[in-house]
Write a structure and sequence with these properties.
- This is Carbonic anhydrase.
- By secondary structure, the chain is an alpha/beta fold.
- The chain has one domain: 3-Layer(aba) Sandwich (Beta-carbonic Anhydrase, Chain A).
- Helix content is 46%, strand content 15%.
- It has nine helices and five strands; from the N terminus they run H-H-E-H-E-H-E-H-H-H-H-E-E-H.
- A five-stranded mixed beta sheet has the order 2-1-3-4-5, with helices on both faces.
- Helix 5 packs across helix 6 and helix 6 crosses helix 7.
Length: 216
């Protein structure tokens, strides 16, 4: 008989609780002591009719940034959205709003990482003045404000630009979505930015407008 918890048992329902659970999972991933929770047949059956994820993870599409793995999660734990360079568009905003308003998810994490190819391409474009062809141009154009802001602050290193882009993305979704900003203002949800290190697997908080997260 399975010993896995039910679909709602031990599920964080507060923003800070969700962040702590993600941190715990990331620590297990780093140490190699992963539990692979919620990945059995019973969990699958429990979730067949409904879902109640405790976090939305909006990250880069990079193959090395598999959110469920690096935070040691399972079925039904995270609502995951991925685009190259975690670039926001209307479809992404609509998906985020669905998670907040319909699913009642308490935490949105923007997940960036070092050596990001989309930010690398944008940095090169800003420096050369040449834009890529096709729809990759749209990605670069959307990331360019973050690269320019990093440069304005005196940051020329790629990783600093990724961190700035992560921060800008988190702030931008609050500016652009009344549903998200409203949930945050009511204390029902929070938006954070996290920077992931490919070499050691560490996920560091780089953005939050709530001091409680920085002290957690």
């Amino acid at each position: 008989m399975s010993t896995q918890p039910s679909a709602v048992e031990n599920t964080p329902r507060t923003p800070l609780g969700a962040w702590r659970k993600l941190r715990e999972g990331n620590a297990r991933f780093i140490s190699g002591d992963t539990l692979h929770p919620h990945q059995d047949a019973q969990r699958r059956k429990d979730l067949a009719q409904s879902q109640k994820p405790f976090a939305v993870i909006f990250g880069c599409s990079d193959s090395r940034l598999a959110a469920e793995i690096i935070f040691d999660l399972g079925l039904g734990d995270a609502f995951v959205i991925r685009t190259a360079g975690q670039v926001i568009d209307n479809a992404v905003l609509g998906t985020l709003e669905y998670a907040i308003e319909v699913l009642g998810t308490p935490l949105i994490m923007v997940l960036g990482h070092d050596s990001c190819g989309a930010v690398t391409a944008t940095k090169a474009s800003v420096e050369s003045g040449e834009l890529p062809r096709g729809f990759q141009r749209d990605l670069v154009e959307r990331i360019t404000p973050s690269v320019l802001e990093a440069r304005r602050q005196g940051h020329t290193d790629l990783q600093d630009m990724v961190v700035e882009h992560t921060k800008q993305t988190a702030a931008r979704m609050l500016d652009q979505s009344a549903a998200i900003s409203g949930a945050v203002s009511r204390g029902e949800a929070a938006v954070i930015g996290v920077f992931y290190h490919l070499s050691d697997g560490q996920a560091d908080l780089v953005y939050s407008n709530d001091p409680a997260f920085r002290d957690a």
